[in-house]
Design a protein that fits this description.
The complex is a heterodimer of chains A (457) and B (235). Chain A has 457 residues and is mostly helical. Chain A has helices at residues 2-29, 38-63, 68-101, 109-126, 143-173, 183-217, 226-236, 246-280, 283-311, 320-330, 338-372, 378-400, 406-416, 421-455.
Chain lengths: 457, 235
């Protein structure tokens, strides 16, 4: 009886998450496109729903809601469904849509997408070889095998995003790094841009007029094809023909067009910087500036801790909650009900981690989607994003285990099986360090290059 | 040669509708082989005979400014784009017949371009949203072009074309529907070619021959439904 009640609670929450994913898809991601393949929207919302259910089950675990056995059952079921989606459905659909976009293979869509999926499975399997992620006593087709590989990919993604985010966040918040941009700079660049456009136009006018004259005379302006064609074109441009060399002008036009693109991008950059300068003078801007200093200290500390962990080969045994309680009880001498408080504090901490990581991921995905999608590739990109999201959430569950006190870790250990959790944390630290350091290098180079561009007249 | 007079026409529309292919087809009478994303603005020039076949025939350069990007871009991109909207003589609005959102976005595109130069004669009821008052008194010549006609299935054609006819009526503009990969649609003498020629003539007239406030003579005042049905047939 209680199992039925528990199941209905879980299923209702899954439907709610599904609805939220659906709305997010329609309002945010696809607001400039028309949804023609509803399968894509359904898959995205389903992935989102099942990932959020996993987090929900963790929260239930901490709070002790629902029956323990029904929790375990739902964990297992959820995990199976997610793995099914991430490994079978989404890659297959990605292959299918990619093949549909290529006109040549349009007729034999299905066999080619199956071929693509098999290639994906091969590489996915090979991924597990160089990593010591499993105890050797498991069979070929078990959940642990699949989860371990998904975990590696997901943890890599998490660490990359984390590293870049940790460095980029103070860089964007703090106004210390803002270059000084005046209105005259912008006007000067705009003038250069318009001058370049005028030069392009005058050359194109010459070309258009030349083509028209040639057309009226009955000559056909064709490109030389083949060996004899080239010979003919060389001899045909005899002295006395005042036709301008079209290919030469075309090359000049190409160079000027490239220049105009560069100028356009630089002008956009300057406008964006000017807006940020104005924003930083407002109250909200000052608040974010202050936060930026705080985050930069936090970022430096995290890099430091990651280095220590790797150098001293140390994996934290206790979670921050228990350590915090230990410190307050032992060093500060404050006595309180450890069990009660540890439960609530870990609930709040885990809750904050979950919410911020979901929100952060959705915002990053949206920005990424706007930047690179077009009307042809939007379906493929959304499915890729769904895949990334699923893997990201699965590995968050893996890593979140570290932030929870021992008594709550058991269910994750039970459900996910005998994974070498320590390996994942070590891998996260390594990738985080690499990502953070290369982001610092990258941002430093980009920052240095920018003022020089504007100095040259 | 370079001393011919010129007019400037903007080509606006969502990303991926086929503006670059269209401009290439209009200016070079050839299909664009490898379309790629337009960053910033790309310009091409068409040599046009104003009032062809009459004694007043004169040749003009028509600059087609193909502005890339999407209508929901960041405000820094919009500010940069605004530099191209100066002293425009005509606007071609391009939308994708297979994508309804691109047609709806045309309202926002025209607002973005026209708000630079337009003197508002009507009262703005809404806050920056599309308002019909503006287009009723709009003096800037507009042309609506729908692309990817070949990808619309025969059975759906009538419905799609009715929708675009209403769209063109909203803008008080002519409309053309074609496929940019097939030069047949703009072959000399076809109704599409005649419409384009008339549009360019209107742009040139507005720029060089009319003073402020005059009505443009000789243009069919408002399309009745019979007129729109006529545009559904193709040569």
């Amino acid at each position: 009886m209680s199992f039925l009640i528990d199941s209905s609670i879980v299923i209702t929450s899954q439907i709610l998450f599904f609805g939220f994913g659906w709305l997010f898809f329609m309002r945010q991601l696809f607001k400039d496109y028309e949804v023609r393949q509803y399968a894509v929207q359904v898959i995205f919302s389903v992935t989102f729903a099942f990932s959020c259910t996993m987090f929900e089950l963790i929260i239930f675990e901490i709070l002790g809601v629902l029956n323990s056995s029904s929790r375990y059952f739902h964990w297992k079921m959820n995990l199976c469904v997610i793995l099914l989606i991430l490994i079978f459905m989404v890659p297959f659909y990605i292959g299918y849509f990619v093949v549909s976009n290529i006109r040549l293979l349009h007729k034999q869509r299905l066999p080619f997408s199956c071929l693509l999926w098999l290639t994906f499975m091969y590489f996915f399997w090979k991924l597990g070889d160089p990593f010591p992620i499993l105890s050797p006593k498991h069979g070929i087709l078990s959940i642990e095998q699949l989860i371990s590989r998904v975990g590696v990919i997901g943890v890599t993604l998490m660490a990359l995003l984390s590293g870049f985010g940790a460095v980029n966040c103070p860089y964007t918040y703090m106004s210390y790094f803002l270059r000084n941009v005046t209105d005259t700079d912008i006007l000067a660049l705009e003038r250069r841009l318009l001058q370049t456009m005028d030069m392009i136009i005058s050359k194109k006018k010459r070309m258009a007029m030349a083509r028209r004259t040639m057309f009226q005379r009955g000559e056909v302006p064709n490109k030389p094809s083949g060996f004899w064609g080239i010979l003919k074109s060389v001899t045909a441009s005899a002295p006395g023909s005042e036709m301008p060399d079209l290919t030469l002008i075309q090359q000049e036009v190409d160079a000027l067009e490239e220049l105009s693109r560069q100028l356009f991008l630089e002008t956009t950059d300057l406008y964006a910087t000017k807006e940020r300068i104005e924003y930083s003078k407002t109250f909200k801007g000052k608040y974010f500036n202050f936060l930026g200093y705080f985050f930069s200290i936090y970022c430096v500390w995290k890099i430091f801790m990651a280095t220590i962990n790797i150098v001293f080969d140390r994996v934290g045994k206790t979670d921050p909650v228990t350590r915090g309680i230990e410190i307050t009880v032992n060093y500060l001498g404050i006595q309180f009900d450890v069990k009660f408080w540890s439960q609530h504090i870990s609930f709040i901490l885990v809750g904050i981690i979950i919410v911020t990581s979901i929100r952060g991921l959705l915002i990053t995905l949206t920005k990424f989607f706007y930047a690179i999608s077009s009307s042809k590739s939007s379906n493929v990109i959304v499915l890729l994003l769904a895949q990334i999201m699923g893997m990201y959430f699965v590995s968050s569950v893996l890593l979140i285990r570290m932030s929870m006190p021992l008594e709550y870790r058991t269910i994750i250990t039970e459900v996910l099986g005998e994974l070498q959790f320590n390996f994942y944390h070590r891998w996260f630290d390594v990738i985080f360090l690499v990502s953070a350091l290369s982001s610092i290098l990258f941002l430093y180079l980009a920052h240095k290059q920018a003022p020089e561009k504007h100095m040259t007249p | 040669m370079a001393s011919l007079d010129r007019v400037k026409v903007l080509v606006l529309g969502d990303s991926g509708v086929g503006k670059s292919s269209l401009v290439h087809l209009l200016c070079q009478n050839q299909v664009l082989g490898n379309p790629s994303w337009t960053v910033g603005c790309s310009v091409d020039v068409r040599v046009h005979d104003y009032k062809e076949g009459t004694p007043e025939e004169k040749t003009y350069y028509i600059e087609l400014w193909d502005v890339g990007g999407s209508v929901g871009s960041a405000s820094s991109v919009k500010s940069t784009r605004a530099v191209f909207y100066n002293s425009v003589n005509g606007i071609i609005l391009v939308h994708d017949l297979t994508n309804k959102k691109s047609s709806q976005n045309l309202y926002r595109w025209s607002m973005e371009a026209l708000n630079r130069d337009l003197v508002l004669t009507g009262v703005l009821v809404t806050n920056g949203d599309y308002d019909r008052e503006q287009f009723a008194d709009n003096q800037m010549p507009l042309l609506i072009i729908g692309t990817k006609l070949d990808q619309i299935h025969e059975t759906k054609r009538h419905e799609v074309l009715t929708r675009t006819a209403f769209l063109a009526e909203d803008f008080n503009a002519e409309e053309i529907n074609l496929d940019c990969t097939n030069p047949r649609y703009l072959a000399a003498g076809s109704s599409n070619a005649v419409k384009i020629s008339r549009f360019f003539d209107k742009v040139i007239e507005k720029r060089y021959f009319l003073r402020e406030g005059n009505q443009i003579p000789g243009f069919p005042d408002r399309k009745r439904f019979g007129g729109t049905l006529k545009s559904l047939h193709y040569d």
